[in-house]
Amino acid sequence: MKAFNQFFTIMLLCSVLVSCNQNEPDPEEMKQKAVELATFLSDNYSKGDSVFFVTETGKTEGFVVKASELFTKQISNEELKFILEGYAIYTILESSNKTYFDIEMHLNSYTPPVYPEVYGNISISYNWGSSSNGEPITTVKEDSIFINRGDESCVLVKNMGIVSISSRDHTWTLKR
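Above: the chain's sequence. Below: its structure in token form.
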């Protein structure tokens, strides 16, 4: 009988441990992470702000902030039993030369549960076309975030925002 009680206790403990999903994100933790990520991008800009960058030729190019915000999102597909929840953080800049920078970060969690991941994306369009290609790679460090997408890349710095952007043979460095 004692062996049966031990076996029953072990089985009960195992079922409790299996039912607790270690990868399920805590909503408050996700919100805090999103607010922290916003300090690298959207917190630094308001719609209508002017931002100046020095190009690879040494000229200064001025941009106007068209949008900059952090918002919650939820996408679901009942047929596939799939739910994506999280936050989106983005900033869109436009210059008088019709150059557009669209920088986004997404903090997502999925059901079935997967721990939240940070996904960055950059899209640069010029008056002569767009160079977007490749799957974005996002590297998050304590004080900077690097987003690389094929020929395009950008560096975001905490409490500063966008400090550099590059695409093909073109570069823009924040004028301080």
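The chain has a mean pLDDT of 80.
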